[in-house]
Amino acid sequence: VQLQASGGGLVQAGGSLRLSCAASGRTFNRFGMDWFRQAPGKEREFVAAISWSGGATYYADSVKGRFTISRDNAKNTVYLQMNSLKPEDTAVYYCATPSRDYVTAKDIDAMNYWGKGTLVTVSS
Length: 124
Hints:
The protein is mostly beta strands. The chain has no helices and eleven strands.
């Protein structure tokens, strides 16, 4: 399984970015997908998760109402739309997925595959 995240960059506070994560190597529409992030000097943390069908989504309290996770199973891609960005959103963002199908998880320990990450920098 390979995950390739993209879309990071530098944005001013209040701005928006959309991250993409292209997956390959297995049947995409059978697996939940997640976004995590890691800020400098901090542990990696959960951001958002989406079920295999896209019918259920979950968010960290810190991003609820500002970020939206979605997926396009025809394109084997998961997205993270980030609006109203704050300087504290600055981090490397990673997409991840568990190895078990039909599972939606939010725990970092449940993730078996990780992308390389894309850097998001929000200036004040």
